[in-house]
Design brief:
It is built from six helices and two strands, in the order ααααββαα. By secondary structure, it is mainly alpha-helical. The longest helix has 26 residues.
Length: 177
């Protein structure tokens, strides 16, 4: 007979967004530390990693982190009805990317859960360049637009680091805690 596992806390719009983003940005921060250490061990400038692409038509490493940051902050802003902070997308160093992570986390963690919970059916419009905005309800927006987009850009950043020899493994992507 197997032991019964305790039930998880009720899932909510907040628990499906902010804690997920916070955890993954913590992982990303550690990947950047690993990239810096790898560059030092191999005697190359870690800044060369920032322009790496998986394919010529894909965005470079720096842009992957900027988009992951924008995706998370715009999600929380749209669901909560709070204005998202504006970041200039001018990071040119690993230290500046790490600072962007801190600024993103500061914003995400400043939004109370009760501002996000209950946004399941809220109408969300996502502006699109040169096209009509996409319209979602909150739950669909979070689960089928934001989370896949967020993970796409984090996975691409992770793959770029791995492709360039940074010693990361699956547990580094998933997190240790």
């Amino acid at each position: 007979m197997s032991a019964e596992l305790p039930l998880a806390a009720t899932i909510s719009m907040y628990s499906t967004s902010v804690p997920v983003f916070v955890r993954m940005f913590g992982n990303l921060d550690r990947w950047l530390d690993a990239a810096t250490a790898h560059a030092a061990a191999k005697s190359f400038d870690p800044q060369v990693l920032l322009s790496m692409r998986l394919a010529p038509d894909m965005l470079p490493f720096t842009k992957q982190i900027q988009i992951a940051s924008d995706t998370a902050k715009h999600c929380v802003a749209r669901l909560s009805g709070i204005a998202a902070p504006k970041f200039e997308d001018n990071e040119t160093t690993i230290a500046e990317l790490k600072q962007r992570i801190v600024k993103t986390l500061d914003f995400l963690q400043s939004v109370p859960a009760d501002r996000i919970n209950g946004s399941d059916a809220k109408v969300i419009e996502v502006p699109m360049r040169g096209a009509s905005p996409l319209t979602f309800v909150g739950e669909t927006y979070l689960k089928h637009w934001v989370l896949p987009n967020f993970y796409f850009h984090l996975t691409t950043a992770y793959a770029l680091l791995r492709h360039n020899g940074v010693p990361l493994g699956k547990i580094d992507f998933l997190g240790r805690d």
